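So, who can interpret the following?
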Amino acid sequence: MVALIAIAAIYVFAGADFLAIAHIMIYVGGVLVLILFSIMLTRRSDHPYPASNNRSVWTASIITILTFFLLCSLILKINFSTLPLTASPWIADSTAQSLGKLLMTNHIIAFELAGILLMVALMGASWIATQHQENSENTKNNG
């Protein structure tokens, strides 16, 4: 998950804010949730997990807490308004705003056709799923 968010941060630093948000919504929001659900659903509950005999739990906990407080103190000491990245002129324009203007002016027909195509695909998928359910119910009743 950290790698996916880091890639989105690279997009933000490159000035592609729309691509960064789309990346977070698609990959972090969709693929990662799919991975988590697949792990949760494939876990076998009939075999209990063995107890952990890890002796360095206290050492790891102390190091984790110290690292957390060190990072928090470093973040609080940074003056973000003086960073050169926020003052650079090439990030001033939002790519989402310019993309929205282009989609609603020059490419409106392609945008509307893509919306209609996605709607028809969704309707077709629901029709196929309904037909599959009806066929399976008919075979159960006849069999």
